[in-house]
Model the fold of this input.
Amino acid sequence: QVQLVESGGGMVQTGGSLRLSCAASGGTFGTKAMGWFRQAPGKEREFVSAIAYSGYLYYADSVKGRFTISRDNAKSTVYLQMNSLKPEDTAVYYCARSNGVLITHRLYEYDIWGQGTQVTVSS
Done:
């Protein structure tokens, strides 16, 4: 069974940067689309970004121009480079593997989730 392990979270000041990584263990991503989501305290989990095996990208409006998603298919690792961080980016960030090849923002179309990594942006 494929498991996803996120890393790279931490605490930064407003305007800082972090790079999250998500690696597969016990298997590979295959040709599935991969996504990043986040959940702030008291809020629902929300879509951040997704990337297809082919490289097609999709971003939430709130992170467009500041975050960059990428993937290394040979390593079954997906990354999220986060720049110009804001306090409202504070959340637990999750990576997830889609059940299909098309990029999507819908949570229910992702069937494997990581454990999450905390990102805290101080003002």
User: Anything to note?
Assistant: The first strand starts at residue 3 and ends at 7. The two ends are 40 Å apart (CA to CA). The CA atoms of residues 23 and 116 lie 12 Å apart. The chain has a mean pLDDT of 96.
